[in-house]
Design brief:
The protein is mostly beta strands. 3% of the residues lie in helices and 48% in strands. Strands 31, 32, 34, 35, 36 and 38 form a six-stranded antiparallel β-sheet that branches. Strands 15-16-22-19-20 form a five-stranded mixed β-barrel. Strands 64-39-67-66-65 form a five-stranded antiparallel β-sheet, with no helix packed on it. The chain is globular, with a radius of gyration of 30 Å.
Length: 789
């Protein structure tokens, strides 16, 4: 029997490969193994969970097209009306300490798409010395590394030292495989032919140096992976199997090599490390569509659909594929052609609650509406969600905790939500409401089951959605000039703040006329200048400044400083050498042209783009100026006239502009201090107001109705939220991409650490974001840190 199966299998696989060379592509096309785009405008929401089914916050979410956001405290993210691919959309998820997650799905333009990703923790399976090589083993698997086979991923140079091997084992037979699988089961073989796969096992592997350096295999020095086949797949495992690696650009599996079966293991060589997969391909594929509804015709959103394809290409193998339905119940999968299909809808415990057999399909097929009844285990949850002011929530979601799992259900424009679940074992359900526009959430509501939950009336009110813990990291609430441990260090009106690649914090200590450095270990030292006002280009403490305000790093580690009362921009190299970069300090005024002869008056904030162009707020001239990397100064916006007007940049007016920042697409934002507004300069030179009604005061709410009092600076988080140092209100305000202003830190004037608005600030000046998602803020005497909670 074993012999006849092997013979049949080899013949079938050869037939698949030969047929692929002459078949007409049924599904998406490829050119040299690259999937073509079939763009569709769609929205997608998702949930990111950890190995314990708990939601993960601050996970960076990206699309292939470069859209970026991050998960909130409920592990939830959403992209609204972006360009996705109809058959192969890629979403990635990244969090410190976890392997990068990939999910490829067919994006529906019919409703709100849903995906769910479980990130896998990076566990160190072992280590070896790169000079000698070694073997690392985990769960019956092993990886053999050759001697002198490791290079730095950043530049390809040889690495000598300890190599840590981080491994996550992905068993395709486990119940939650749909949440864990990298990408999907779409693939491209070594000849550029499209395929769908049946997995016999996956490994996620990364290499790190002793200091956390990212490492990779040296060219022509492959490693050998020996993978233990899952027991319940062993009898089906062929003697040879293709090996596939994850293409991190497309999220598609690409064939690289072949593994040989040795008893209960596969062994094969790999040239580099991304997720690796041992899979059988099927080259004949179709698109299978369906719409899930209940017996009353209501859509069943976010339902997990599994399609089993039996006897693929005449083999005794069953290929299995998964997807979630969108908000209209629509689902699309790419599955093998000419194989009998079984449609399964799974409950929250991954058990089928509905099964339907379909004959083999040779062409794309839409099964139409599938009406199913979850029976006595059916649980319908729905109702209306209100804001704090009693109006309907129009932009938000509901989190549901059921059967030890989290779900996110969008709230519709009329304030209503609805979802259908199947109970497995749970006796209670927890429902939490979220208003994204107002950045508010309600208290968790716990209901015992069974209970009628189809007509709830809830509020999303009472809790700030994003809380920050405010702590003092340097300074002791009194003015002075003292280096040393952060507990005893003193500053005098610190302004600009920037972070280098090593995590050191650099502060423009304005009234001490020097640049201070705070190490991650908590030691304060003077980097340039020495507390004496003046003007001297020199090295380190021999240099002199006069009222420095803004600082920013370029990509080479150079620090640029706005020297306010010297009316120029200074440059400080990593070695501490200070030179004048732009501005005629002896002739303050307003003059564009070559950097050395350009004139400025009372410079404040500055920022820099990826090209090395510097943008500064010329406070005295009420203009935004640009110092191009070519050395030419020009005016970006403003007419050298104090006032307020939006419109074309050359006629727009500002009033004492202070902070300046760039968003992810290059738009310029300015804290218009005396106009009490946040202004925007877009890529075609149009100035607009994005927040503040111009009346000094304090009012949260819709952006253009909100009130600020002398906003000083702003910085963006990974989700596109803007945090604003609202100086005279002694608060940190938050402006969401949806256009809502809220207060996230500070109450009355003072110096008090605490959570959110329980803290006190003393005239916050400048603000900057670090790599972990925390913000650093300078104020009158101290340096404060806002850590997301």
């Amino acid at each position: 029997m074993k012999f006849s199966f092997s013979a049949l299998f080899v013949v079938s696989i050869l037939t698949l490969f030969l047929f692929a060379g002459c078949q007409k592509e049924i599904n998406w096309d490829s050119v040299n193994g690259t999937v073509k785009n079939d763009p569709v405008t769609a929205s997608v929401t998702g949930l990111i969970i950890d190995e314990n089914d708990q939601p993960m916050r601050n996970v960076i979410i990206r699309t292939k097209a470069g859209n970026q956001t991050s998960t909130d405290s409920n592990g939830y993210f959403r992209f609204n009306k972006i360009t996705l691919d109809k058959y192969s959309s890629l979403i990635t998820a990244e969090a410190p300490g976890y392997f990068k997650g990939y999910r490829v799905f067919a994006a529906s333009g019919k409703g709100l798409n849903f995906i769910k990703i479980r990130l896998l923790r990076k566990d160190v399976a072992g280590s070896f010395n790169s000079i000698n090589g070694g073997t690392i083993s985990i769960n019956g698997h092993s990886i053999l590394f050759q001697a002198n086979s490791i290079v730095l991923k950043s530049n390809g140079s040889s690495y000598a030292g300890t190599v840590k091997v981080l491994i996550a084992d992905i068993d395709p037979t486990i119940a939650d495989f749909p949440e864990i699988i990298p990408g999907s089961l779409n693939a491209v073989d070594s000849n550029g032919n499209q395929a769908v796969l049946k997995s016999f096992g996956m490994l996620n592997v990364e290499l790190e140096g002793a200091a956390g350096e990212k490492l990779q295999l040296k060219e022509n020095k492959p490693a050998t992976i020996t993978y233990k086949i899952p027991n319940n797949l062993l009898s089906q495992a062929p003697d040879k199997i293709p090996m596939w690696y994850m293409d991190e650009t497309d999220g598609i599996w690409k064939q690289e090599n072949t593994a040989i079966k040795q008893a209960d293991k596969y062994s094969g060589q790999v040239k580099h490390f991304t997720p690796y997969n041992f899979d059988i391909p099927a080259f004949q594929r179709i698109r299978l569509e369906m719409t899930l509804k209940d017996l009353s015709g209501n859509p069943l959103p976010n339902a997990l659909v599994r399609v089993d394809a039996a006897n693929v290409a005449g083999t005794p193998l069953t290929f299995t594929y998964f997807t979630y339905s969108d908000s209209t119940g629509y689902a699309l999968l790419i599955v093998p052609a000419n194989s009998p299909l079984t449609i399964n809808v799974l409950d929250e415990c991954y058990s089928p609650v509905y099964t339907r057999s379909e004959g083999a399909k040779s062409t794309d097929t839409n099964l139409g509406s599938i009406n199913l009844d979850y029976g006595v285990n059916k649980l319908v949850v729905g109702g209306t969600i209100k804001k704090c002011n009693g109006q309907n929530v129009t932009n938000g979601y509901v989190t549901i905790y059921l059967e030890n799992k989290f779900y996110s259900i969008p709230i519709q424009a009329n304030g209503q939500f609805s979802a259908t679940f199947t109970r497995c074992f749970g006796t209670s359900i927890t429902i939490t409401t979220v208003d994204l526009e107002a950045q508010q959430s309600g208290n968790p509501n716990v209901y015992s089951l069974p209970f009628n939950l189809s007509n709830l009336s809830l509020t999303a009110c009472g809790n700030q959605l994003q809380n920050y813990m405010v702590t003092t990291i340097a300074g002791n609430s009194s003015s002075g000039y003292v280096d040393g441990a952060v507990a005893i260090a003193k500053f005098f009106n610190p302004h600009g703040v920037a972070i280098d690649a090593s995590g050191n914090l650099f502060v423009a200590d304005a009234d001490n006329n020097c640049i201070r450095k705070i190490t991650p270990q908590g030691v304060v030292s003077t980097f340039a200048g020495n507390g004496t006002a003046g003007y001297v280009d020199a090295t380190g403490t021999a240099a002199r400044f006069f009222g420095i305000t803004g600082i920013v790093f370029d990509n080479n580690g150079n620090l640029f400083v706005t020297d306010q009362f010297n009316n120029c921009v200074r440059k400080i190299t990593p070695g501490g050498v200070v030179t004048t970069y732009a501005g005629d300090r002896l002739n303050p005024g307003y003059l564009d042209g070559p950097a050395a002869s350009a004139q400025f008056t009372s410079l404040q904030g500055l920022t820099i783009n990826s090209n090395g162009d510097i943008f500064v707020t010329d406070n005295g001239c009420n203009c935004i100026r640009k110092i191009a990397s070519s050395g030419i100064v020009s005016t970006v916006a403003g007419s050298n006239s104090f006032g307020y007007s939006d419109g074309p940049a050359n006629t727009a007016k500002f009033a004492t502009p202070m902070g300046i920042s760039l968003d992810a697409t290059g738009n310029i934002y300015v804290a218009d201090w005396a106009n009490h507004r946040i202004r925007k300069i877009n890529s075609v030179g149009i100035v607009s107001t994005v927040a503040g009604d111009g009346t000094p005061g304090y009012l949260d709410g819709p952006a253009l109705n909100a009130r600020f009092q002398n906003p000083y600076d702003m910085a963006f988080d990974a989700s596109g939220n803007m945090l604003i140092a609202d100086g005279s209100n002694h608060k940190i305000r938050k402006l969401t991409p949806a256009g809502s202003v809220s207060t996230v830190a500070g109450s009355t004037v003072g110096n008090l650490d605490g959570l959110g608005t329980a803290s006190k600030l003393f005239y916050p000046y400048k603000i900057v974001l670090d790599a972990s998602g925390a913000f650093y803020v300078t104020e009158t005497h101290d340096i404060r840190k806002l850590t997301p909670q």
